[in-house]
Design a protein that fits this description.
A hairpin with a 5-residue loop joins strand 8 and strand 9 (152-156). It contains six helices and eleven strands. It is an alpha/beta fold and 230 residues long. The strands form three sheets. The protein has a seven-stranded mixed β-sheet with strand order 5-4-1-6-10-7-11, with helices on both faces. A two-stranded antiparallel sheet has the order 2-3. The protein has a single domain, classed as Spore Coat Polysaccharide Biosynthesis Protein SpsA, Chain A (Alpha-Beta Complex). The two termini are 25 Å apart. The structure holds cytidine-5'-triphosphate (CTP) and magnesium ion (MG).
């Protein structure tokens, strides 16, 4: 039986969100935003350990009490200058605990509404997959290409287009190798693609959206308050 581990990159500054406090520590229903992403992973029985990757000069983590998340959580203060650098550094930090064939789920700190149902579907659907994959949703809206005056230059086809979410789940050995060679993508799957593989798209739902702007917090709060999970 292959083991499952999780990495939560949380060393970003939240420049689009703005403000003094980094996005992952913004208050959401009385707790820091990142708490919910970590709680979803820690609650999942098949995940053995959760590494949270913080900036070396993070001064917010210690201001909160994380004991309710239990024993699976481990902090590493090795965040890098990009998301992929943060993930690559965490993979190195985890090297002694994880085997090459073990699964690693990388999940954004800023996706607090990950459901246990989507997490289970991801693990189940990829269990025997030779490559791995990611949660994603087919694009629903009509797509417009803007010109420089913010007028519609044309309508783009949305056929076959999906929005990538996280978790993104790949084997430790593969993920470590591809991130070392292709560090310029904004997600793990793009590094895997650049190495010539085709990650599997596992259908999730829009509730697992990424908090990017201040207005997104209200939506996240409504989703979390309306959810009943075992
Ligand atoms: N991240 C990271 N290390 C970085 C940049 C980002 O660990 N150098 C993490 C973020 O903390 C977040 C996830 O990657 O959990 C997704 O990134 P994003 O939503 O883009 O967050 P930020 O980079 O913080 O926001 P922005 O792009 O608006 O600055
Ligand atoms: Mg970013």
């Amino acid at each position: 039986m292959l083991r499952h581990y999780a990495i939560v990159p949380a060393a970003g500054s939240g420049s689009r969100f703005g403000g003094e406090t980094p996005k992952q520590y913004q208050a959401l229903a009385g707790r820091p935003l990142i708490y919910y992403s970590l709680a979803a992973l820690c609650r999942c029985q098949r995940i053995e350990r959760v590494w949270v990757v913080l900036s070396p000069d993070d001064r917010w983590w210690r201001q909160h009490d994380w004991t309710s998340l239990g024993h699976k959580l481990e902090t590493v203060f090795c965040g890098g200058s990009s998301r992929s650098a943060s993930v690559a550094n965490a993979l190195s930090a985890a090297a002694t605990a994880v085997d090459d064939d073990d699964w690693v789920l990388v999940h954004d700190a800023a996706r607090p509404c990950l459901s246990q149902a989507n997490l289970t579907t991801l693990c189940d659907e990829l269990a025997d997959d030779p490559v791995g994959g990611l949660l994603a949703v087919p694009l629903a809206d009509t797509l417009k290409r803007a010109d420089e005056h913010l007028r519609v230059a044309r309508t783009e086809s949305r056929d076959g287009l999906w929005q990538a979410q996280t978790p993104q789940m790949f084997r430790y050995g593969l993920l470590t190798r591809v991130l070392a060679e292709h560090a310029d993508g904004t997600d793990e799957a793009s590094a895997v693609e650049a190495a010539g593989f085709r990650p599997r798209l596992v259908r999730g739902d829009a509730s697992n959206f990424k908090v990017t702007y201040p207005a997104d917090l209200l939506l996240a709060e409504l989703i979390l308050k309306g959810r009943v999970e075992p």
